[in-house]
């Protein structure tokens, strides 16, 4: 059975703009079903980012996701070190030091997601678009490629799972 790892922006962008809960409830019902079936998971770092806001998204996650949905990121500490080593190798180009600092911040989810996806051999689902010449931020697809992690867009995940919303 295929398993997919979901990035924070999968939830936040869906909630804020792509699939508002008051309009596209079928998306959220499908997501809850996929989580219950063990087809999608995420990380504790993603949970922390979502739960920073006491809003409808947080309440939905609390009410609809299995208790074991958010996995322990520290299990991927060795892979996290590899991701940080890769990021540090990019100090001269193209990223600025602040962009690298944000990406490597141990409290932020992105580097941990790449590391966990590598460790578990999972595709990482994100709305982020590759921007290899970006100076302002390290995009997940650009970190996934050299680490050997497959990165997919949300609709590609649904297609691969043969799911409709």
Question: What distinguishing features does this structure have?
Answer:
single chain; 165 residues; alpha/beta; Rossmann fold; five-stranded parallel β-sheet; 9 helices; 52% helix
Task: Provide the CATH architecture.
Answer: 3-Layer(aba) Sandwich
* Oligomer class: single chain
Helix content: 40-55%
Distance between the termini: 19 Å
CATH superfamily: 5'-nuclease
Rg is 16 Å
**How is the CATH topology named?**
Rossmann fold
How are the strands of the biggest sheet laid out side by side?
3-2-1-4-5
Tertiary shape:
globular
Tally of individual helices? 9
Number of strands: 5
Strand content: 5-15%
Low-confidence segments, ≥5 residues, pLDDT <50?
none
If you average the pLDDT, what whole number results? 95
- What is the H/E order? EHHEHHEHHHEHEH
- Sheet/helix structural class: alpha/beta
């Amino acid at each position: 059975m295929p398993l997919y790892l979901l990035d924070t922006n999968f939830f936040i962008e869906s909630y804020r703009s792509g699939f508002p809960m008051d309009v596209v409830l079928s998306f959220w019902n499908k997501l809850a079903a996929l989580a219950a079936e063990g087809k999608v998971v995420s990380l504790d770092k993603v949970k922390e980012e979502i739960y920073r806001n006491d809003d409808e998204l947080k309440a939905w996650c609390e009410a609809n996701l299995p208790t074991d949905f958010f996995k322990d990121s520290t299990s991927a500490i060795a892979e996290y070190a590899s991701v940080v080593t890769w990021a540090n190798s990019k100090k001269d180009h193209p990223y600025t030091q602040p962009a690298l600092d944000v990406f490597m911040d141990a409290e932020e989810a992105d580097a941990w997601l790449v590391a966990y996806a590598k460790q578990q051999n999972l595709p990482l689902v994100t709305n982020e678009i590759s921007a290899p010449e970006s100076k302002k931020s390290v995009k997940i697809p650009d970190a996934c490629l050299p680490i050997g992690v497959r990165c997919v867009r949300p609709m590609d995940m649904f297609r691969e799972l043969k799911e409709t919303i």
